[in-house]
C-alpha cells in the first residue's frame, strides 16, 4: 500500500515512515526537503498520485498566533484538495490532546481549526490526539523561563515518547478510517512542574522550577486536566525514566 507521510522527515514522520516500510508498505516521506511544499501546494499532486493514505504530521515553523493559523489553514486546505483529486481513501492527521479545551492558545486554536477542516471534508479520516512528547520537555522549560526560574502550573501531565506516538499513527494509518479521534498518551501521570524539575535535574541544569498556577502554556492558563486524555486513551509502553536513561546514554 502506498502511504504518503507529509512531514515525513521530522521527529514523528521519520519514525512513521520506518514503521510502515518495515511492515512492507510503500511509505513516502514528503516535505520541502523532498520537493513537497504544503503551503504553496508544490509537489502535492505528484506525490499523492496512486496513494491509498496520506498522513499529515507537519508542524508550523512559527508558533506566533497569526503565522500558525495561516500555516495550518493553508497547508490543510491544500492537502485535502490534493487528496480529493487523487481519490485518497484515508486522511490521517496528528493533533494535540485538549486542543479544543484551550481556545486562548493561538497554536491550539489553529490545531482545532485544522481538525474542523478535515472532519468537514468529504474524505474518510482519522485524527490522532497525542499528549506532549518527552522530547519537548526541555523546550517547554525554555519557553517558561524567566531569568533562572521556570514557572509552570502543577497540573496533571501525561507525556509520551515520540516513538510511541509514531507507532500509534502508523497503526491508525493501516486501519480503517474512524472518522473521529483516537487519543494516545504516556503510561504515567505526573505533575507538570514535577516532571520538568526532574528533567532539568537529570541534565544538571541549575534552573529552579516553581509552581505558578497562572503560568501560561502556549498562551493559555491550564486547569487540572487540560492536558490529560480521556479514560479510553491508548497508552504508550515507554516510561519516562527509561526514556531519560536511554537519552542520557546516547548523548553521554
Walk me through what this model shows:
A 7-stranded parallel beta sheet has the order 2-1-3-4-5-9-12, sandwiched between helices. The mean pLDDT is 95. The termini are far apart. The protein is an alpha/beta fold. The chain is globular. Helix content is 38%, strand content 19%. β4 (90-96), α4 and β5 form a beta-alpha-beta unit. It has 8 helices and 12 strands. The protein has helices at 11-22, 44-48, 65-85, 106-119, 137-143, 162-174, 192-202, 240-251; strands spanning 2-6, 26-30, 53-56, 90-96, 125-130, 145-146, 149-152, 156-157, 181-185, 190-191, 208-211, 234-235.
Query: How much beta, percentage-wise?
Result: 15-25%
Low-pLDDT runs? none
Let me know the number of strands.
12
Structural class: alpha/beta
Largest sheet: 7 strands, parallel
By DSSP (H or I, 4+ residues per run), the number of helices equals 8
Q: What gross morphology would you assign? A: globular
- Major β-sheet strand ordering: 2-1-3-4-5-9-12
Question: What is the quaternary state of this protein?
Answer: single chain
- Provide the gyration radius in Å: 18 Å
Helix percentage: 25-40%
Please, what is the average pLDDT?
95
> What is the CA-CA span between the terminal residues?
40 Å
Please trace the helix and strand order, writing H or E for each element.
Answer: EHEHEHEHEHEEEHEEHEEH
Amino acid at each position: 500500500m502506498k502511504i504518503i507521510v507529509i512531514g515525513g522527515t521530522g521527529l514523528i514522520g521519520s519514525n512513521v515512515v520506518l514503521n510502515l516500510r518495515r511492515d512492507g508498505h510503500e511509505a513516502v516521506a514528503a516535505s520541502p526537503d523532498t520537493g513537497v511544499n504544503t503551503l504553496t501546494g508544490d509537489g502535492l499532486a505528484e506525490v499523492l498520485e496512486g496513494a491509498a493514505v496520506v498522513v499529515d504530521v507537519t508542524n508550523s515553523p512559527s508558533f506566533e498566533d497569526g503565522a500558525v493559523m495561516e500555516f495550518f489553514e493553508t497547508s490543510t486546505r491544500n492537502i485535502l484538495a490534493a487528496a480529493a483529486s487523487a481519490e485518497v481513501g484515508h486522511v490521517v492527521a496528528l493533533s494535540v490532546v485538549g486542543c479544543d479545551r484551550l481556545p486562548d492558545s493561538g497554536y491550539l486554536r489553529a490545531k482545532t481549526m485544522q481538525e474542523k477542516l478535515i472532519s468537514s471534508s468529504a474524505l474518510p479520516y482519522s485524527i490522532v490526539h497525542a499528549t506532549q512528547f518527552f522530547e519537548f520537555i526541555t523546550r517547554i522549560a525554555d519557553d517558561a523561563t524567566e531569568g533562572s526560574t521556570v514557572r509552570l502550573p502543577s497540573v496533571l501531565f501525561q507525556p509520551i515518547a515520540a516513538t510511541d506516538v509514531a507507532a500509534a499513527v502508523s497503526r491508525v494509518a493501516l486501519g480503517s478510517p474512524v472518522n473521529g479521534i483516537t487519543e494516545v498518551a504516556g503510561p504515567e501521570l505526573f505533575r507538570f512542574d514535577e516532571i520538568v524539575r526532574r528533567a532539568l535535574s537529570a541534565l544538571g541544569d541549575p534552573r529552579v522550577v516553581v509552581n505558578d498556577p497562572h503560568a501560561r502554556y502556549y498562551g493559555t492558563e491550564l486547569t487540572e486536566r487540560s492536558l490529560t486524555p480521556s479514560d479510553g486513551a491508548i497508552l504508550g509502553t515507554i516510561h519516562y525514566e527509561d526514556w531519560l536513561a536511554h537519552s542520557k546514554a546516547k548523548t553521554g
